[in-house]
Amino acid sequence: MGQRSRVRVAVIWSISLLAAIFSGVLGGLMVTYLRDLPTLDALQEYQPGLVTTLYSDHDEPFATLFEQKRFWVPLDKIPRHLINGVIAVEDAQFYQHHGINFRGIARAMLVNLRALRPAEGGSSITQQLAKLLLLTPEKHLSRKIKEALLALEIEKRYTKEKILELYLNQVYFGHGAYGVESAAHAYFKKPVDQLNLAEAATLAGLPRAPNYYSPITDKERAIGRRNLVLARMVDQGFITKQQATAASAATFDEFLFEKTRNLGPYFVEYIRQQLEEKYGTYAVYHGGLKVYTTLSVAAQRAAETALFDGLREIDKVRGFRAPRAHSSPATIGGTSSLSYLIPKAGEILNATVTTVRPKSITVQVGGYQGDIALDKVPWVDPTKPHQQLQTGMAVKVRVLGVYKRTRTLDLNLEQDPEIEGAFLAIDPRDGGIRAMIGGYDFERSKFNRALQAKRQPGSAFKPFVYAAAFDQGFTPSTIINDAPVSYPILVNGKRTEWSPDNYDRKFRGPTTLRYGLEHSINVVAVKLIERIGVDPVIELARTLGIESALRREYALALGVSEVTLSEMVSAYGVFANSGIRFLPYSIRKVVDNKEALLEEHIPAGQRVMRESTAFVLTNVLKGVIERGTGSRARALDRPVAGKTGTTQAATDAWFIGYTPELVAGVWLGYDTKRSLGPHESSATLAVPIWVRFMQRAIQDSPPEEFPVPENVAPVMVNYLSGRPTTPNDKDAIREFFPK
């Protein structure tokens, strides 16, 4: 054998040895990776996390609870255009390969080399499914190898249709939407089976880079991506060029992309807490529960509009406050990432001041501009516009008009109030909570002031004193002398005198209980509790649902003991419901994702007050509206009863009122107690908010009288003296007395 032949043999043997070594190493690595692969049992047993949905009192969905927002749909409910679009852009050889798309990997490498950046992925749909369901998201070569091996195993065990179903229900589409059904609702406000070709192509283009290609983030980029999907679908023979051309001409309905504020966030949080306590966190966020609540969507919206507008109006009286935040110079005069969205009339939006002039300012709202004349903003000092408003300042504006052609807006200036408020409405006939607001802004403060805040109710507590008195035989015509009085009390261990005073600093002499309650006369209430005793008032309050600590003192009659709004509204519901109490509740029933009933609330009322006492008290509280401190509620022009409450130094303002079908209460104040103003009262602050709510909440209900029980009798009496009189008496009213 020649030297050349020996060299050739040596080279061959060397190559063979290296190949054997490489094969051994590769085989060893393969064995190692196969040993470390997760089993497909997890895929076989895969249960997607499902959204828990909250429904209103009329079974309308209004909120969801989820970790990943996903609604499972079978493959036969997903439009063929969407399936084909995903295949065309993500894995054109999906039906030809066995888990790994080598042609797609080669194409992606070429595209990425040309772009000098990762412009396209080469993973097959099956590989992506393996990564989504079975692997962690870290980017290492070892994970890519495992991904490929798992894809091969998945293809052996599952049909192509099952792989597509799993993938389309799992993949992320951006903006919190997982799966095609959730994505269809997020982007187009419709079920997935109602998508047209253009919409399906838009969604098909998202999984590669959901936020980058989102039409909510960048409309033009999303159009380009959609049209690429359509072109790929033509190349694959899924659609014709004519279909692609027509779909490419479709525009996005920008109104569908508006970010809507969640309805009733404090109520939703209240529901969530109850569900988690009973069913656990996993069931709430993954179990797909259906929770049928007592919330009225119409009442909740009415409450939010009334309270938030009212708080802003009250705050404006205190003048303009320069916000702490300024926009960065880069955004001044420019457009935000949501610049193409169209504002709507009535919205309150963030804006940036771009120009300040002596009599007006110009602000930028996304891609729109608007001028605000300062003479329309009386709460801004017109002599100091440059001191109060500065270029770059972040402000709130209310949209009054929208001009899309010129991209201009009619605007007015707004500001978030410092004052806080809470609102609660309950159906007294069953205890169902119809509306709940725990504060001005849930994101600013999640503290639920309707349920958790304990504040002094002031004169709103007086009805409990009067009800206890009526139970003991007193009547609305009973006379109490409204005159100065003093009581010995201990303050910090020292003996002193307490002399209750009236709001207007006047004394009226002999006064009927009706007049005393209608006009909220403090001295009458204190002398009344002195006569009947403090303990009967506390005992009655407890039976009506007041659980907070109540101080055993005469000042209890003036509302010095702190209570919650929910306690007060629930107790007033007993007055409205003829003395029968229903415990407040918020969940009617809960079913699981297979429609099995998990719980159901059946309201059960209990009589806790004599029917005659409840009616006589209600009849007097109607007088609060007709002639007293709640007279602004006469605007409802229907039978209404209620009571105002203003605390010492006006730190708290309350109004709780009711009709036979609805009891509602509003509280206003600062979280850190301070006066609402030296001349403010609940009559001017709380009552108007309550009236606005009721005007919308019960506008479709006919006026309803409070039912008169058989064991009371009407008598004509003189309003001031309480003595029987004739109908000819100009001060005659019809009073009711127990028989």
Describe this structure in words.
- The protein is of the alpha+beta class and 739 residues long.
- Among the domains are: 1-36; 68-257, Penicillin binding protein transpeptidase fold (Orthogonal Bundle); 265-414, Beta Barrel (OB fold (Dihydrolipoamide Acetyltransferase, E2P)), CATH 2.40.50.140; 714-739, no CATH class.
- It contains 22 helices and 26 strands.
- The strands form 8 sheets. The chain has a 5-stranded mixed β-sheet with strand order 2-1-6-19-20.
- Strand 8 (360-365) and strand 9 form a beta hairpin.
- Helix 5 crosses helix 7 (160-170) and helix 16 crosses helix 18.
- 41% of the residues are buried.
- The model is unreliable at 20-34, 115-120 and 326-340 (pLDDT under 50).
Give a short summary of the structure.
This protein is α+β, with helices and mostly antiparallel strands and 739 residues long.
Annotated CATH homologous superfamily of the domain at 68-257: Biosynthetic peptidoglycan transglycosylase-like
User: Which topology of the domain at 68-257 does CATH recognise?
Assistant: Penicillin binding protein transpeptidase fold
Helix content: 25-40%
| Beta-strand proportion | 15-25%
Q: From the alpha carbons, calculate the radius of gyration and give it in angstroms.
A: 35 Å
Query: Number of helical segments?
Result: 22
Q: Any idea what the CATH architecture of the domain at 68-257 is?
A: Orthogonal Bundle
| CATH class category of the domain at 68-257 | Mainly Alpha
- Identify the strand order in the major beta sheet: 2-1-6-19-20
Overall pLDDT level: 87
User: Could you give the count of β-strands?
Assistant: 26
**Content-based structural category:** alpha+beta
